[in-house]
């Protein structure tokens, strides 16, 4: 369980401190996160991420993350408009413990992978992640977007051009495909396949670089461009991006290799 935030911790984002939630990661390779809420505590999540919840927890779908309740209608419309650019729903679900005693609610992403817990108070109050990585977070966390302003990243970055920005001082949970590796950079440079990048802290500079010479770019099979990460901070990487998994599955069925059996092969010969 994560320790409670100290009384003299970092100042709250937007004048509001995030709720202090407890959690447990369930599973090994296909994980869920079970969040424990005290009475009155709230966790926000992407629509459709909830698996199960205990009696006493009430949920409500709202426009935005609720971190700035006094921003007005135009402020909310601008915030959700930014979220729409990432392809995510403009609505988020708020789960609040309305009962007595501790209650639990569990979340998981729609594809196999790993849940990564991040204490934003220990990461400078901010985390940048891929647009589909955010899963859930303590109430008070701001969920916005960040544009990568560098020309190379904007033109060739693909998934990395528009990033999600999580700001706050509480727990946030992001989801990654396959195995997750955390790298601590101390000024050195790291080269990463653009789809394998999950998240990084604000001390990291992100850009796109050409992958080797022309021969390597055409025949290397690693893509035309690589993400470059340099600076001081943490980087989370995933072994199996969902886009790569989807391309492999689609390619197998497109070439008729999806059946994987003699019977399936005979079916192809005789037209099912």
Explain this structure.
With 272 residues, the protein is of the alpha+beta class. It has one domain: Mitochondrial biogenesis AIM24 (Double-stranded beta-helix, 4-Layer Sandwich). Strands 9, 11, 12, 14, 15, 16 and 17 form a seven-stranded antiparallel beta sheet that branches. Strands 5-6-3-10-13-8 form a six-stranded antiparallel beta sheet. A hairpin with a 5-residue loop joins strand 1 and strand 2. The radius of gyration is 21 Å and the shape is globular.
What's the number of structural domains? Answer: 1
Which CATH architecture would you pick? 4-Layer Sandwich
Order of helices and strands: EEEEEHEEEEEEHEEEEEHEHH
**CATH class, please?**
Alpha Beta
Strand content: 35-45%
Average pLDDT for all residues: 78
As a whole number of angstroms, the C-alpha radius of gyration is: 21 Å
Terminus-to-terminus distance:
54 Å
- The CATH topology is Double-stranded beta-helix
- Range of helix content: 10-25%
Shape descriptor reads globular
Computed structural class = alpha+beta
Q: Number of DSSP helices?
A: 5
Largest sheet, in brief, is:
7 strands, antiparallel
Q: How many strands?
A: 17
